[in-house]
Amino acid sequence: MPDVTTDVRIRPLDELDLNGIVRINEKITGAYEPDLWEKRVMFYTRRDPGASQVAEANGKVVGFMLGDCRAGEFGLEEPSGWIERFGIDPDYRGQDLGRRLFDAICAHFKAEGATSVRTLVDQNDAPVAGFLKAIGFGESSLAALERKL
Ligand SMILES: CC(C)(COP(=O)(O)OP(=O)(O)OC[C@H]1O[C@@H](n2cnc3c(N)ncnc32)[C@H](O)[C@@H]1OP(=O)(O)O)[C@@H](O)C(=O)NCCC(=O)NCCS
Q: How many angstroms separate the alpha carbon of residue 87 from the centre of ligand 1?
């Protein structure tokens, strides 16, 4: 496993990161989805680039975390940070990159006046749920509800 702890750079998302994110997502899910990710990257960069960050090692994007700071939704009047999508290249996991991306985004959320950060997780996805617990997420009084249409 490449050791990137010393020379990794955490920085805001840029439109040019699209190819790197498509590649990481393909490694994680097996699906090559450039059009889908182009829409997402455009959305997050135009909305608030600092709320989405990438990890770059030797000029190559090896991780991403996409988020957003919003107010006035779900009865939450105060600004709240939301973590929406993330992925670390499997070759670069276990080196704190996920945590460092999260910390950088949280610093941005705080600067925007947010006092909490929220996300949704599939409780059946043990690795992602475990990561979110390890970086400090706990139960919320808000619950995700759904019904079939
Ligand atoms: C979950 C994920 C982001 C973790 O990234 P990472 O860089 O390896 O995580 P870090 O090294 O920053 O770990 C931070 C903490 O989370 C914990 N953690 C990481 N992966 C974990 C896992 N699979 N299960 C339990 N805990 C985990 C670490 O032990 C660490 O805790 P500690 O500091 O108390 O030791 C990465 O494995 C990933 O991208 N998974 C796939 C996500 C996905 O399915 N995305 C879909 C595309 S949107």
A: 9
